[in-house]
Automatic annotation (TrEMBL), chain A:
It comes from Streptomyces pseudovenezuelae. The keyword Membrane applies. It is a multi-pass membrane protein. This is ABC transporter permease. PROSITE patterns: ABC_TM1 (PS50928). One of its GO terms (cellular component) is plasma membrane. Keywords: Cell membrane, Membrane, Transmembrane, Transmembrane helix, Transport. It is found in: Cell membrane. The chain crosses the membrane at residues 12-30, 117-140, 152-175, 195-215, 257-279, 299-325.
Automatic annotation (TrEMBL), chain B:
PANTHER family: D,D-DIPEPTIDE TRANSPORT ATP-BINDING PROTEIN DDPF-RELATED, TRANSPORT ATP-BINDING PROTEIN. It comes from Streptomyces pseudovenezuelae. GO terms for biological process: peptide transport; transmembrane transport. Belongs to the ABC transporter superfamily. Keywords: ATP-binding, Nucleotide-binding, Transport. Residues 4-250, 271-506 form the ABC transporter domain. GO terms for molecular function: ATP binding; ATP hydrolysis activity. This is ABC transporter ATP-binding protein. The keyword Nucleotidyltransferase does not apply. It comes from the Bacteria. SUPFAM superfamilies: P-loop containing nucleoside triphosphate hydrolases (SSF52540).
TrEMBL record, chain C:
It comes from Streptomyces pseudovenezuelae. This is ABC transporter. Belongs to the binding-protein-dependent transport system permease family. Its main location: membrane. The chain crosses the membrane at residues 33-54, 111-136, 148-170, 176-194, 225-247, 282-301. The keyword Transmembrane helix applies.
Amino acid sequence: MSGFTAFALRRAVSAVLTLLALSVIIYVVFYATPGNVAQITCGPRCSPEQVHQVAQQLRLDDPLYLRYWHFLQGIVAGHDYSTGTSVEHCPAPCLGLSYQSDQQVTRIILDKLPVSLSLVVGAMVLWLLLGVGTGVLSAWRRGRFTERALTGITLAGVATPVFVIGLVLMIVVCGQLELLPFPEYVPFADDPEQWMWGLLLPWVTLALGEAAYFARLTRASMLETLAEDHIRTFRAYGVGERSIVGRHALRGALAPIIALNANDFGSAVGGAVLVESLFGLPGIGQELVHAVTVIDLPVVVGMVLVIGFFVVLANAVADVLYAVADRRVVLA
Amino acid sequence: MSLVHVTDLTVGFGDLRAVDGLSFRLEQGAALALVGESGSGKSTVASALLGLHRGTGARVGGSVEVAGVDVQRASDDELRRLRGAKAAMVFQDPLSSLDPYYAIGDQIAEVYRVHTRVSRRAARARAVEVLDRVGIPDAVRRSRSRPHEFSGGMRQRALIAMALACEPRLLIADEPTTALDVTVQAQILDLLHTLRQETGMGLLLVTHDVGVAAGSVDDVLVMRHGRAVERGPVAAVLGAPGQAYTRELLAAVPRVDAPRTPSPAPGEVVLEAKGLRREFGRGKRAFAAVDDVSLTVRRGETLGVVGESGSGKTTLGRMLVGLLEPTAGEVRHDGHARVGVDPAVQMVFQDPVSSLNPRRSVGESIADPLRARGERDEKRIRGRVRELLERVGLEGAHYDRYPHEFSGGQRQRVGIARALAADPRVIVCDEPVSALDVTTQAQVVALLGELQRELGLALVFVAHDLAVVRQVSDRVAVMRHGRIVEQGPADEVYDSPRDPYTRQLLAAVPALDPRIAARRRAERREVAVT
Amino acid sequence: MSEALVATEVPGAAVPGASGARQFWRRLRAQRAAMVAAVVVALLVLVALAAPLLTALEGQDPTTYHPSLIDSARGGVPIGSFGGVSGDHWLGVEPQTGRDLFARLVYGARVSLGVALAATAVQVFLGVVVGVAAALGNRWVDQLLSRVTDIIVAMPLMIMALALLAIVPGSFPRPVLVALIIGFVAWGTIGKIARAQTLTLKELDYVAAARLSGWGTLRIARRELLPGLAAPVITYAALMVPANIGIEASLSFLGVGVRPPTPSWGQMLTSADVWYQAAPQYLLLPAAALFVTVLALTVLGDGVRTALDPRAASRLRIGTGRRQESKADLSEAGNLDGDEPKVHEPETAREGTA
């Protein structure tokens, strides 16, 4: 299996390179935009003195590559910032200071991360179970009423934007029927039960659309596998439908599902931003929307990088899993 | 009671009647071949025997009885108990016919457990047993491999092992050797023969290749358009065919033992390859597909290049026309070293589907070399294309038709017309007839011969089929592992081969005469023993 | 409906052969659901195009405030039953501002469809150019462009769009900006599809035959490759349109996309949950409009995919080459040094919406 180890290693290296390139692109895009960066970052109501101060803080006199280099240094080794009188140490990985609150971006992110992770990971478990299950069911019952009904439902799920699902669920479940309290975030460590109840609706909201998407994917992928020659072989040998669908077709459909789950992770993160904003969960997404509205560049850049890190990580893990699921990829 | 009893079988898909009133019987332990060209309905019959059309929307009429089961009326459960246990099927493409994700031993064990209530462990043991039986070395270890880790021949053996697992009374083999090289084909056919002798099971062989049928069965049924044309003992049908179609079919089959009427004395050398080498891949994965190949082609002669898959013959052909650059060595054209393509050296491709752009009319494709040469006069272009279309046996009015409106043989003619449009001196034909039915094959080969005589073309005929190559070639080069192992006048190479590999190849070619087939089988067995 | 297809046509691509187009229409017409969806989409496009006419009929416009129609004492609830429905305001007025809801809804269709189509056009253009260049370029060009594509695919679209919207000066026309940003951030998948398809096409015999005819690379790319690219690219683009509608709505919902006074369905929903009891149609109408539009476009996209040779689409999926291997001499056919194209033909085009 040495070929496999080499593959995993190559994939890891390429993930690191991708991340590095991503950081360059993001840095250049955000700090080399036309217009006065200092003015943009400081905001439209800043006085010229404040703008000047920001420009100095940003080292705007330095060339861009040097500033990027400092930024990288901060991530690897940490930074010391002089905030007028005192010197604040920002330990590695340092992503800079917020212009709005002078807080360390890394600390802001670490504060918000548990909320977002709770949301995304919980929802992911839900949508994978729900989506793949529905997809398998409709592939098994293909041509019958069950399949048509499920196809219709999943189509509706795909067609509804996540915030519409969330709005409707919140109004109906929490407002009208009062089945659940309005969602709120309680740290898991404080009260696991409250944590779960508080996140239940956000999970469902985020998971429904994704589940519909995965159900469609699973169904399509399984139907395609079912049309392949080797399925005919097992039919011709008297193997039952249950084993053909549950064993052979699902196994064939697994690799694309894994690969797509990674690709979709990025879109799920986008959905999480909407869910957090909608339900007022204090996660990274909500903070990002806030930072964007007030144009707090260091926070925006830091968060985009951290989210990019997770997405690249998810892609790399999925590629390796994909290779495990379909070893011909490695051998090819 | 007969093992198989088919009465008045009809199978229809939509408007198409694939099988139309077919009846036949197969007795216990006997062997019958269904022989026919594509579209004759032979494979449909094979599927109907196991009731595989059930639930696919096909209309099936008549009655089919296999091993005492009425396939038409049996319940789903009864049908399942028939499939694999009493009648097992071996398919054409062994790679796609096995699940790529599971070990071969597990797949056989799964099938075995469907029909016998034994433990997983016992089923695995049975899988190893049958794999060993079909001649897979080190069966215990190999049973844990996945299909892609097997070679083509080994995969077909594994599929046969799966068929044997439940000791069926009938084995249905649907083109079992079509995807295989000729030497491997011989091994698989010998294996089927041996198994039949040892187990006494009946065999229904579906094939397009009369030669494959000749050496493997007792009776033959020739099919065309879903109907039986002729049936009887194999020696009688092939030796003295009673029907015109059968005679036509047999006449079209190229013979490996028939000498060719030699071409008029070849002219000057038009194409020359010197020390050609082509590598693929980099670093550790690099390998040479073609290694140190030198050859010459003269005006008016045909050089046959024959080899099995992976021998490098296609790569060589592409280098000769300039589609691939050699890693080392050179191609000389009229005495000059050549780089890149040259319209004077054209190619006819293997696949009649992918060799024509489906979105352009055939006339436009044929006109390409004219336009590329700078011809702007639409009238002259049309005129020349018409002429070419008529020359290759199509109608001039076909200019505006699209490739999908043509049959495989017609498309191959279009490909030839396109090659001719460039006024070439050399045409490299890369497996030009391997995708065609045998009667079409004969027509295309005849057309190439005519054109050659008429235009004094030099042809390089690359193919895997030894008989076709003998039929068309003045000189022959035999390739293996990227090298030419033997090169010389065709009759010399075929009648007194010097290289052991050439001898092995020739011994593997199926013979049309059942007696010769039996003798060759005995010879092969001897070669294997010594 | 042809609107959607024309807008997503590959730039510079020749129209597929007459027979191909006829076949496409026949296969599309055979699908009832797709045809219903096509009618719905056509209606929506009509509404969007005729928005000024429709509002003129009603006698309103989307931006005028009507303070007299809202009850400022009750926090801005529209006066009258059903959120202020009347002969003058067919669907009532917006809470707090009193702007005409019907007018905002039909103008919202303009924004929604316009932004989505423009974004799709940008995605298709960038994806096809980069993908084809990567496939036809030498090893280094391919490496570079493929890595760039990978990075684009890896970037979470919603996040990037959100962040980018922050730094562009407010003077830039917002809908154009949103379309451009969605286009520039989400062309990766089309790029991958275009590259894989070009690599496949490049190896086809008819391309080799064209080379032997003596044609140059450019002519071959235009005549032989681009038409073959049209099918998979249109297929994917047809599914990108509804996805882009969702993204625009999401961004506007978050308050960073299309900004007032320009109306947008997503933006209307931003504060709808506050008003759902007093003016339920303020929540329901934009939500329903979004749902119907995305649904119809998705069903139509599915239909287009089915009509455009489903086999070709499935060949793009994860090149394990199961079938090809049986073809004789594949091992020598070259292309061993490149990694196999690993492309996922997505069930629904989605890069960042929900």
